[in-house]
Amino acid sequence: MTQTRVEKDSLGELDVPVEAYYGVHTCRSLMNFDVAGERLPIEIVHGMVRLKWACARANHVLGLMDDKKKDAIAAACQKVLAGGFEDQFPIDVFHAGSGTSSNMNTNEVLANIANEELGGTRGDRSLIHPNDDVNKGQSTNNIFPSGIRVACVYLVDDLVPALQHLIETLETKADEFKDIIKSGRTHLQDAVPETLGQGFAAWANSLRKDIRRIEASRDRLLEIGAGGNAIGTGVNTKASYRPEIAKQLSEISGKSFRPAENGIEITQFLTDMADMSSSLRMTAMDIGKTCNDLRLLASGPNTGLAEVVLPAVEPGSSIMPGKINPSICEAANMACIQVMGNDHAVQLAAAAGQLELNTHMPVTGYNLVKSFRILERCARMLADKCIVGIEANRERCYHYFETSGGLGTILNPILGYDKVAALVKESLKTKKTAREIVVEKGIMTGEDFDKLVKNCTGPNLE
């Protein structure tokens, strides 16, 4: 049998595993909440731990905590952030809407680690108390959402390099394919010419915009409500406490956190988090669109477009020998759909606040962290297992280009719309290319037509 120690709270006594760093509040939460079957993401826990560290330092600066307690709490925070205590944070995702269970779980773990730092034992509250010391000057209502904000700021540091890697991989292919002329398509119908490289460059540029949106959203999340205490008024704290927390957190993290412009507003509204989720959703939309385009361009190979060849990563069928599917693009598509679904959950949760508090914060943080994780891995998978190995089918690209009904459009400035329309009809009827027709009719030489085509694709062809 598991050995236990007895701990007491306002509801009475409860057995706690003797080896656990968490305490009675965590045990009660484990008895009550088991819906998601998943723990709250450790990134949010670490966000709260960084805040506890900053709060201890702020309390010390303001003369509210002595050196011994401040140093013990700081040491505990650093130990948790270094790893190895993940199993001490077992709270289910779906628990009290403000995150009370997770905040208290964090308080208890840090308090017991700090107690051991001072020579005490787990469960002994006489040296470091989870509420009076670790949680000093704090409320779950402000610490938990601030923890989500801190987590997201750190997660941006992981996501942006992954997106940049995908951009660079696309740009490499854009350069490789810059001289391959193909037919553009609108409404899935023939349109004016472009180069294959221009298409890859466009996909890369969409992601550059996504990074800018993510970074703008991150800036709003650098504003934290820690120290607002319950509804954001800062009850039971000094006026200088909140800016001091932001200062200390910035020194700990190396990031420019700042106190809330309005403590009451930031406690009630999760809109800044919804804004970040929206930026992640738009990134997923752009990656998904790119994958859809690649699947179309690689379709076939005999009955589709087959303008590009995607690298084979696995046999595509259990019944059709030799079939190869765009599996990486399909996996990325599903990942992007999941991110878009996560965003919908965040939007619903952010809109569900009442009066002085939003009580849907755990589900908001959970879906944000999940989207960050998915997008980071998705971007690297797509770059390394698909984009880098794409080959162009030059002959097919040129065939579609020279037989495209949209090719005649480049003659509009020379012949006018009506005459070009007649030429296009003739091309479709005779199966002759636009080039062949204009040369036969003496409208221009083949060399002049080729030069016109080259100019119409823009400078990226050079």
Please explain how this structure is put together.
The protein is mainly alpha-helical. It has three domains: 4-136, Fumarase/aspartase (N-terminal domain) (Fumarase C, Chain B, domain 1, Orthogonal Bundle), CATH 1.10.275.10; 143-225 and 264-392, Up-down Bundle (Fumarase C, Chain A, domain 2); 405-461, Orthogonal Bundle (Ribonucleotide Reductase Protein R1, domain 1). The protein contains 18 helices and eight strands. It has helices at residues 24-32, 42-61, 67-82, 100-117, 130-134, 140-176, 196-221, 229-232, 241-253, 263-268, 271-297, 327-350, 361-385, 394-403, 412-415, 417-430, 434-440, 446-456, and strands at residues 4-9, 12-17, 181-186, 189-195, 223-224, 258-259, 308-309, 391-392. A two-stranded antiparallel ribbon has the order 1-2. It has a two-stranded antiparallel ribbon with strand order 3-4. It is elongated, with a radius of gyration of 30 Å. The termini are far apart. The model has no long low-confidence stretch (mean pLDDT 94).
Which structural class should the secondary elements be placed in?
mainly alpha
Strand order of the largest sheet: 1-2
CATH classification class of the largest domain: Mainly Alpha
Tally of distinct domains? 3
Count of alpha and pi helical runs: 18
